[in-house]
Amino acid sequence: MVKSILFVCLGNICRSPLAEGIARKVAKERGLDILIDSAGTSNYHIGEPPDSRSIEIGRQNGVNISMLKGRQISGSDSKFDLIVAMDRQNYANISRLGLGNRLVMMGEFGLDEADIPDPYYGNNQEFKMVYDMLYKAINAMFDEVLK
């Protein structure tokens, strides 16, 4: 059984903190006791809060991620039972770190596309689309891997 999940995107300010917040909410609703965290493959935003647009779309959906801070994935993250990459490039970067024992793509769960697109250069509608994709995929992931 999966007891810990790490969500990973590039900078840990858009997709992965949203995924962390959504997963925490869904886990709480389902009465699950799971360690949930997020990280980025880059060091661009270490210590920074999530993108304001991610914070806002989370808030609109009852998910508070405003307290999260960006961090970079490291060797100590091998402790996670499941590492979930947001796109193929993140997957490749994580694989090179040798942390791929239980490495999966977020889009493998309930979505038609493998990649969760990075909304960083997009508008609020793209953040909403990413939120919806993450919500659907995380629920499907919990249904599948937390049986």
Identify the notable features of this structure and list them briefly.
147 residues; protein-tyrosine-phosphatase; protein tyrosine phosphatase activity
Give the CATH topology. Answer: Rossmann fold
Number of strands: 4
Shape: globular
| Biggest sheet strand line-up | 2-1-3-4
Radius of gyration: 14 Å
GO molecular function, one term: protein tyrosine phosphatase activity
Protein name: protein-tyrosine-phosphatase
EC number: 3.1.3.48
Family: Belongs to the low molecular weight phosphotyrosine protein phosphatase family.
Brief characterization of the structure:
This protein has one domain (4-145): 3-Layer(aba) Sandwich (Rossmann fold), CATH 3.40.50.2300. The chain contains 4 helices and 4 strands, in the order E-H-E-H-E-H-E-H. With 147 residues, it is α/β, with parallel strands linked by helices.
Describe this structure in words.
The protein is built from four helices and four strands, in the order βαβαβαβα. It has 147 residues and is α/β, with parallel strands linked by helices. The protein has one domain: 3-Layer(aba) Sandwich (Rossmann fold). It has a four-stranded parallel sheet with strand order 2-1-3-4, sandwiched between helices. Strand 3 (82-85), helix 3 (88-96) and strand 4 (103-105) form a beta-alpha-beta unit. 41% of the residues are buried.
